């Protein structure tokens, strides 16, 4: 019996995100940025994320 490679959490996440039909490696790219400052954790959408939250019927540049 050989030793099985135990996947890291990052490898499991990437494996899950690329398992769908027609999935690409880019589908597993991070979409959020987590930072912590003075004990406060902040979660932001990555600037280069292909998909961003918001109203899909409005132009992202208009307010």
How would you describe this protein?
With 63 residues, the protein is α+β, with helices and mostly antiparallel strands. It is built from 1 helix and 2 strands; from the N terminus they run H-E-E. The chain has one helix at 9-17; strands spanning 32-37, 40-45. Residues 1-63 are annotated as: Disordered. This is Multidrug transporter. It comes from Microbacterium album.
The number of helical runs is: 1
Shape: flat
**Percentage of β-strand residues:** 15-25%
Low-confidence stretches: none
Q: What's the count of strands?
A: 2
Spell the H/E element sequence: HEE
Mean pLDDT: 80
Biggest sheet descriptor: 2 strands, antiparallel
Q: Give me the oligomer status.
A: single chain
Distance between the termini: 61 Å
The order of strands across the largest sheet is 1-2
Residues in helix, %? 10-25%
Structural class determined from secondary elements: alpha+beta
Rg: 17 Å
Biased composition (Basic and acidic residues): 1-16, 34-63
Protein name: Multidrug transporter
Region (Disordered): 1-63
């Amino acid at each position: 019996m050989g030793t099985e490679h135990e996947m890291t959490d990052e490898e499991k996440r990437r494996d899950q995100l690329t398992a769908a039909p027609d999935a690409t490696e880019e589908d597993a790219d991070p979409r959020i940025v987590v930072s912590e400052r003075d004990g406060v954790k902040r979660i932001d959408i990555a600037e280069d994320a292909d998909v961003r939250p918001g109203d899909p019927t409005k132009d992202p540049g208009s307010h």
